[in-house]
Design brief:
The complex is a heterodimer of chains A (62) and B (570). Chain A contains one helix and four strands. Chain A is an alpha+beta fold and 62 residues long. Chain B is built from 14 helices and 19 strands. Chain B has a seven-stranded antiparallel β-sheet with strand order 2-1-5-4-3-6-7, with helices on both faces. Classes of the chains: A alpha+beta (62), B alpha+beta (570).
Chain lengths: 62, 570
């Protein structure tokens, strides 16, 4: 969540690309980027990659 | 850990939360609080974690920690003073949906912050496109009413008058809203003062230590429950028939439950991208629905607090129907999509824990909202009317008949109150024969309410579901009956749905239809899906259902192979 400089409104809503939690800039939260997407943790990046791989295998894709 | 103190303190706090709800019920102006009890009261610790909650509305129970934590990210505890009351309803900042207003008040003891008294209530009128908040055709949040970021509605015990004026200028029923908002504040006032008494009795150190132990205890109990479920990845899908805007699109709720060891990950990836219409769930709803499902499938004696949520991880990808991005509409996500998510999680777990899951329930609150100027008094009235549905059959019992959907725990407004407060006369209210899905344990029955308009004009909107996709059965059980909304215009003889009568894209989601004096409205609520093969149902139960009118002889013959001949012998 990126607030305006005066703090009166939100300029951009930021969410983790995997779990969807709100990420507040300038707060005590991790902000990671992978393939241009914002994530809240390495766990979420790893989970998303693993999920995609598992679903591709289930569909018979390599 | 002192188990006796934990038990006493937990019970005391739950009792305080119940009392908060009673104050709210007895002091509110609107029927959504005084009759339907569409609210939840709880106590949170300094970080926003739930310490205790009363058994009111499950939608709000699981959402409460996220709500309070999001507020505390914007208003740090260093800026919170004794006597402050913070208000918030923003669906994009941890909120559930626009009508759900959260109030919380800090609990100070000797100028030290010890936690928060919290009340969440569904304010029935929030401005926006339609009277009553549920605009079935909204395409952005701004259609759905006033959005309130975390603000102090009271500062150190004094009303923040500017906030009050802004709030009440944006709704159609300021007097009623004022009363309801005051009722919510009365609830958090009570929670705060009672909790201060408790902390003074036990001492701050004992209170803090006991709360820590209580949350750890709940976590251990939940982990033990999850440990007993076979490990694996369990998947299921269910569908939402329409968003009220894009008539040809159906929406998928997809769930994968990853159960390993003593924890669980609930992953919604694969669910539909967010809808144009107002069926999108917020992050708060997606989180709350996951907790709600798990609480329904585990030991109900586990104290409900943030400790029991720790082993549950929820993944709700943004921009989907389970985690709407700004400024997508969302009012129906909390009422319709929430129960659909819960049902989907239960469907996923049906083979792993067959004795703890149930077939699909009606999954809608009906959400008929209406308003207008009373022809006799001139006062503007608004009502949010909740209807019950049939719940799904279970491994050990039939589904509940005609009760509010799984995330509501609300009560339909009694007819006497309804007719006194609003210009309708209810002509008919009865269980619907053959609406329950057949099964060894049948689904709960739905019901029909028919009423005639007594006012010159009433503007109606609705956000309901199950007009197309019936509640599914489990393990051989049959699907439950569909819902419907029909209108018989005065001086006509043909009942029509909302598409036929008003050209609406959806029969279940529509906004601002004009009902006039003498028009009749008929609301049919869906029945629940059955559980287990119908052939395994006990004969005595079939006979009882026939006698009570829940099942017709024809239905019994069709679904259970029960003959009229047998019935005559009996």
């Amino acid at each position: 969540m990126r607030f305006s400089e005066n703090g009166l409104y939100i300029e951009r809503y930021i969410k983790c690309g995997n779990c969807g939690v709100l990420i507040y800039e300038k707060k005590d939260q991790q902000i990671l980027t992978h393939d241009g997407v914002t994530y809240c943790s390495q766990w979420c990046i790893d989970w998303k990659i693993a999920r995609e791989k598992r679903r591709q295998e289930a569909r018979g894709e390599r | 850990m002192d188990p006796v103190t934990i038990n006493i303190l937990e019970s005391t706090m739950v009792s305080i939360c119940r009392d908060m709800g009673i104050v709210l019920m007895k002091t509110a102006y609107s029927t959504i609080f005084s009759e339907a009890l569409d609210f939840t009261c709880g106590l949170a610790d300094m970080s926003g974690d739930l310490m205790a909650v009363a058994d009111y509305c499950p939608s709000q129970i699981g959402g409460m920690p996220l709500l309070v934590k999001c507020c505390l990210l914007e208003i740090p505890t260093s800026d919170i003073n004794e006597g402050d009351v913070i208000l918030h309803n923003d669906p994009y900042r941890g909120g559930l949906h626009t009508p759900e207003h959260t109030f919380f008040k800090p609990i100070f003891v000797d100028r030290e912050l010890m936690g928060f008294s919290v009340a969440i209530g569904h304010i029935q009128e929030v401005g926006g496109m339609v009277p009553g908040g549920f605009c079935g055709e909204a395409t952005e949040v701004f259609h759905e009413g006033i959005r309130v970021p975390p603000v102090k509605i009271k500062k150190q015990g004094e009303d923040n008058v500017e906030v009050w004026k802004l709030l009440l200028a944006n709704v159609r029923t300021p007097r009623v809203n004022y009363g309801d908002l005051r009722a919510l504040i009365a609830a958090v006032d009570l929670g705060e003062s009672r909790t201060v008494q408790v902390i003074r009795k036990y001492g701050k150190a004992v209170f803090r230590e006991t709360i820590r132990d209580l949350l750890d205890y709940s976590e251990r109990r939940m982990r033990a429950e999850l440990e007993a479920i076979p490990d694996g990845i369990y998947g299921f899908r269910d569908y939402i028939e329409s968003d009220g805007v894009d008539a040809d699109r159906t929406y998928t709720i997809e769930v994968e439950v990853h159960k390993f060891g003593d924890s669980i990950v609930i992953d919604y990836a694969g669910s539909s991208s967010q809808a144009k219409g107002p069926i999108n769930a917020t992050l708060g709803v997606a989180t709350s629905a996951a907790y709600n499902a798990v609480l329904h499938m585990t030991d109900p004696s586990i104290p409900r607090n943030s400790g029991c949520f720790r082993p549950i991880r929820v993944l709700a990808p943004p921009g989907t129907i389970v985690n709407v991005d700004y400024p997508g509409p969302e009012v129906g996500g909390n009422t319709e999509t929430h129960p659909r998510i819960v049902g989907t999680i239960m469907g996923a777990m049906a083979d792993a824990i067959p004795n703890r899951t149930m077939a699909a329930e009606g999954g809608t609150h009906s959400n008929l909202v209406f308003g207008g100027a009373d022809a006799e008094t001139g006062d503007f009235f608004i009502c949010y009317d909740i209807a019950g549905v049939g719940w799904g059959g279970r491994a050990f019992a039939d589904g509940n008949d005609a009760v509010d959907s799984i995330n509501g725990n609300c009560r339909p407004t009694p007819i006497e109150v309804f007719e006194t407060r609003f210009p309708w006369r209810v002509e008919y209210l009865a269980f619907d024969t053959d609406s329950a899905g057949a099964g060894k344990f049948r689904g709960g029955v739905g019901y029909t309410k028919q009423m005639i308009c007594l006012n010159d004009e009433i503007i109606c909107s609705q956000m309901t579901d199950r007009h197309v996709f019936a509640p599914w059965g489990l393990h051989g059980g049959k699907q439950g009956g569909l819902g419907a909304t029909l209108i018989l215009k005065a001086a006509t003889k043909e009942w029509q749905n909302m598409s036929q009568a008003f050209g609406k894209k959806s029969t279940s989601r529509y906004s601002n239809v004009r009902i006039t004096k003498g028009d009749r409205l008929r609301l049919v609520s869906p029945g629940g899906g059955g559980y287990g093969e119908p052939k395994d149902r006990q004969r005595e139960l079939i006979v009882s259902d026939i006698k009570q009118g829940n099942v017709s002889l024809t239905g019994a013959e069709r679904d259970y192979g029960y003959s009229e001949e047998q019935h005559e012998i009996l």
